[in-house]
User: Fold DUF4340 domain-containing protein from Pseudoalteromonas neustonica.
Amino acid sequence: MQLSRKAWNNVLIFSMLLMIFFFNGLHKKLNSVPVESGIQTLLPAQSFILALEFPDQKIERIGTAWRSQALFKNAPESQWQSTQSNIVQLINKWQGSELPLAPASTSLKSNVPLSVATIWLAGEQLPWLYQLYKAPQGYYLLDKSTQRVMLLDSVTARGLYVSFNFPISESK
Assistant:
C-alpha cells in the first residue's frame, strides 16, 4: 500500500488518538469502585456535623460543645438532652452508622414519614434530610439528597431518632 508522507502522518495521528481514548477509558474502568454496595454510611466520610434537628428538638455545635433546645414551648425534656455525653453519643451514632441498602424494588407505602432528621454539615450549602418510614420488619430510612433507601432495625431507629415516640408494642 503506497501512502504519501502526509497520509502516513494522518494515520499516525488518528492511531495515537485512538490509543489515548482507549487507555483513558481503561484507566477509569480499572480504578472504578462499585457505586452500590450492600452497606453504606449515612453521612459522607470525614463529615462534620454542625447541627441536627428533629421536629421537636434542635442540637447545634457551639464551639467545642453542644447545645440542645426545644423547638416549641411545652416539649418534654428527653434523657439524651440532659447531658453533653448523651448528645455526643447521638452525634457519633449519626456519623458512624452503616446501614444496608433496601432492595431496588422497595417502595415506601406511606406518603407521610414518621419522623424527619435534618443535618447541617460543614462545607455544605443545603442540609441533608433523612425521613423515617415504617417497614414490615423494622424501618426504612430515606436519604433525600441521594434518594437511597436503607433498612433499620427498631433498635437502630430508636438510637438515631431519640426524640420520636415509638409505639409501645415495639418496645422490647
Notes: The chain has two domains: 1-32, 39-170.
